[in-house]
Amino acid sequence: MPLQDQNEEALIAKAEQGNKQAFAALYELYLNEIYRYMYYRLLDRMEAEDLTEKVFIKAWEALTRPRENRQPLQNFRAWIYRIARNTLIDHQRQAKHVVSMEDIERFQSNRPSLQEQSEINEQAIRLVNTLSQLDETSREVLLLRFVNQLSHADAAVILGISENHVRVLQFRALKKMKVLLDA
Amino acid sequence: MPRVDEQNNANTHLIDHLANLLDGISEKDQLIAELPEQEAQELEELLAAASWISQAPKIEPSDEYRQQSRVRIMEQINPPQAVTFLGRVRLIYTEALRSMRIRQRTALVLMSIVMLIAMLSVGGTQVVLASSDALPGDNLYEVKIMIEEARLLVSSPEKRVVQIDENLQTRLEEIEQLIEQGRFEDLQVALNQFDTNVNDLAQAMANLPPQSPERSAAQQLLLETAHLNRIRVLTSLLDKVPENARQAIEKSIHTLDYLSTQEPNQKPEKSVTPKPTKDKTTGKPEDTGNSVTGKPTKTSKPENKPDPQVTITPTQTANSKNIPPGQVDKDKDKDKPDKDDKDKDKDK
Description:
The complex is a heterodimer. By secondary structure, chain A is mainly α. Chain A contains 10 helices and no strands. Chain A has a domain at 1-96: Orthogonal Bundle (Rna Polymerase Sigma Factor, Chain: A), CATH 1.10.1740. Chain A is globular. The radius of gyration of chain B is 29 Å and the shape is elongated. Chain B has helices spanning 2-23, 28-34, 37-54, 63-76, 85-99, 104-123, 125-131, 141-153, 157-180, 187-206, 213-237, 243-261, 285-288, 297-300, 308-311, 328-335, 339-347. Chain B is built from 17 helices and no strands. By secondary structure, chain B is mainly α. Chain B has 3 domains: 2-39; 85-154, no CATH class; 160-338, no CATH class. Chain A binds chain B through residues 18, 20, 23-24, 27-28, 31-32, 35-36, 39-40, 48-49, 52-54, 56-57, 60-61, 64-68, 113-114, 120, 123-124, 127, 142, 145-147, 149, 151-152, 167-168, 170-171, 174-175, 177-178, 181, and chain B through 11, 14-16, 18-19, 22-23, 45-46, 48-50, 52-62, 65-66, 69-70, 72-74, 76-77, 79-80, 83, 87-88, 91-92, 95, 320.
């Protein structure tokens, strides 16, 4: 059976044993999600591309690192998002990256694929504009839940908090979002 | 306070209702009908906001990026290497100590002590002594490295610099012996360890107080004797190794040279190329055997190799920039911000 047709668990198990082709199949499965997460957090295509690549390299290193009593990964999606989040935090710490008006302007002017579709562009810009006015936590919760369409449970694992806490943060973030959209 | 409690209760209900509706657990129309008008309205507005965000464009990377990135990643990742027996023992101890929430440095010290005791009790002092002659690829080589690491961990910052300097010398001797014995397959291990020691040295120097005499002495030692000697020895070995091992040695030469260019006392016009042995003035006994054949420029810096200040990265450097760890770069700026440094920054 071709690797890309195998189920995710089998791919993960093979990748853990150092099978690069299995990892390549996992890359294809998760590239879009991780890239989108990075993109909406950074508002910069180049940075999102760089960091997405780093995430997959880190994931490989973590997957294949020798470990005693290795337990099989229960939730690969949450696990790789967690790597993405930590990579992003490291990056922002190093670059002192704060979403600024300049970022938004860059976002507006430097998106050829979106400019081709003015309708989509408009909504993306509005979303980015609104998200940039939210605090970091609210932005993250909304992106994970509604842009990346993750469950409460996955979001909780990624953020390192309880599921109930995610529900509370989601409620507050949506209230803030509503105020901004009404303004 | 009752009003606050009521508000909190209402919020708790709404939080749960919202989460359940978003998860599809509750039926929207039915739930809205059951709620007071104000709560129902608020819930609908929040759902509308959530729905609006969900309709955000599903940004995807370009096909070009997808393919190129995949190729780059596949080139960078390597299958895991087999774990040796001692590596496995180290792994078990590190994980066991980590599970007890002991800090990594403490864990390493404890692990080293435990390992030393274990080795002494099983094989006696002979094992530890025998390990000092071990070469990369030998069973006892990891013991030798662990003893070096353990000694570093318990050394003061000043002594650590001297200690690492000695370790670097040991690595050179190992490389020479490996080449003499024709064990080119083990050369990479020694060169990796050599690069690790270079990085350790940069780190140890960065941890010394900027104005301390030890730091000045360490820099002096590093720049005036050790570096050039090591570069000469490594350069002289280039002739003796097969083509596939040559690249790794060249990389180590560049790594060393790169570190020396980071020091504040470094003259900007210093060439990457080590001087031929005839010109050497600081020869150490260990150089004389192999540095006689000191090669001219082309061996140490092939024409197709870019300038090490731009591209050479030490093998085990943690960060992705071309700066060895230990914040040598930062210290350099602090100590002596000269024109060349600024130019380097611009280049970056």
